From TrEMBL:
The organism of origin for this protein: Amygdalobacter nucleatus
Gene Ontology CC: large ribosomal subunit
Top-level taxon of origin: Bacteria
GO biological process: translation
Signal peptide residues on this chain, from the entry's feature table: none
Protein name: Large ribosomal subunit protein bL32
Record keywords: Ribonucleoprotein, Ribosomal protein
Amino acid sequence: MAVPKRRWSKERSRRSRSNWKLVAPALVECTSCHELRQAHRPCKACGVYRGRQVIDVAKAE
């Protein structure tokens, strides 16, 4: 099995970890009820996705 020849320096470890950050989900406005929702997901308020009713919100409550 292959083994690393030398250990990574502290600088190299920290540089590789520099992009580990949380990103807030992208929010877009719903075309039917104008509430904010996540992109590529049905609206939780009205249940519409891409102009079609996909979730019966009244039944889900």
